[in-house]
Design goal:
Helix content is 48%, strand content 1%. With 293 residues, it is mainly α. It is flat and about 85 Å long.
Length: 293
């Protein structure tokens, strides 16, 4: 079938290409589509009015001003609505992934391939390590594993090692003042109260022109604030001194410690308290002493 006949018949471009060019490379496809567009243009009657391009929505002056102030307040540098939305996107995305229906791994409870890993630059961000005892998967970075086991070596995760009487790996997970594992966009001094103040300002000013990036940034910030509050509520029971933790409670505490490292907004004192609680639990294993934990 000639190209002119195919175009006139109303066939879509993909069907025409499939029929006239079954074996094709990327370059051949591009040339064929260009040819089809040229044929279609030749067959359009002269004087056909061109379709008007729709005007893209834009943020208004009030939301842009809010975004600039918020960027300076939370990030610590000057920036606008696009920069603020981009800075907060990773944290909001990780929250959605953690709250979704997909398979989650490790104690940090993230997918195997997070859309925005946002980890430190060294090593493979998506690497997972298989535990031969519980058949679970962990990120070497989350459990602070310095040396990877060989391909033929068995590996036991920190919780399984603890259940066998070795609390050292679990105590290592609870290390304080160690290597920074997850990069954050927010300034180190940014607190939950500061973020809430920025959101309250949006509401107080009744901003309604955040149609693009400013609106996205505001929604991302709401997600991050809600996540931080929920994390603090889940952490509270573990800060009450107990004689011993059940296996389920111990796993929950390890997950909180690893998850806290991935959060964009987390109280550093709270996270350290959780680490201390996990370390104390690790000391209960008979093979760990305070000197080597």
């Amino acid at each position: 079938m000639a190209l002119e006949e195919a175009v006139e018949s109303g066939m879509d471009f993909d069907s025409i290409v499939e029929e006239t060019l079954p074996g094709r490379t990327a370059a051949q496809l591009e040339r064929k589509y260009d040819e089809l567009r040229q044929v279609k243009q030749r067959r359009e009657p002269k004087g056909t009015p061109k379709k008007k391009k729709q005007k893209l929505q834009e943020d208004g002056p009030e939301s842009l001003a809010w975004a600039a102030r918020t960027h300076l307040e939370l990030i610590g540098t000057e920036g606008g609505a696009p920069e603020l939305a981009e800075a907060l996107y990773g944290a909001a995305t990780r929250h959605e992934e953690r709250s979704g229906k997909g398979d989650l791994h490790c104690f940090c409870r993230l997918p195997e391939f997070p859309e925005v890993p946002c980890v430190s630059t060294d090593g493979d961000a998506a690497e997972l390590l298989f535990c031969d005892a519980c058949a679970g998967w962990v990120h070497p970075r989350c459990i602070r594993l310095e040396t990877m086991p060989g391909d033929d070596d068995d590996y036991i995760c920190p919780l399984c090692a603890y259940s066998r009487g070795d609390g050292v790996p679990l105590a290592t997970v609870a290390t304080r003042n160690g290597k920074v594992l997850w990069k954050r966009a927010l300034d180190d001094t940014t607190t939950l109260e500061t973020c809430e103040k920025c959101l309250n300002e949006w509401e107080a000013l009744e901003i309604d022109d955040g149609l693009v990036y400013a609106g996205l940034a505001k929604n991302f910030l709401e997600t991050i604030v809600g996540e931080a509050k929920a994390f603090a509520e889940r952490a509270a029971p573990f800060l009450v001194k107990k004689d011993a933790l059940s296996p389920a409670e111990l796993r929950g505490l390890a997950e909180l410690v690893c998850e806290g490292q991935t959060l964009e907004l987390v109280d550093g004192t709270l996270l350290d308290s959780l680490r201390d609680a996990l370390r104390c639990a690790a000391l209960a294993a008979r093979e760990v002493s305070p000197e080597n934990a």
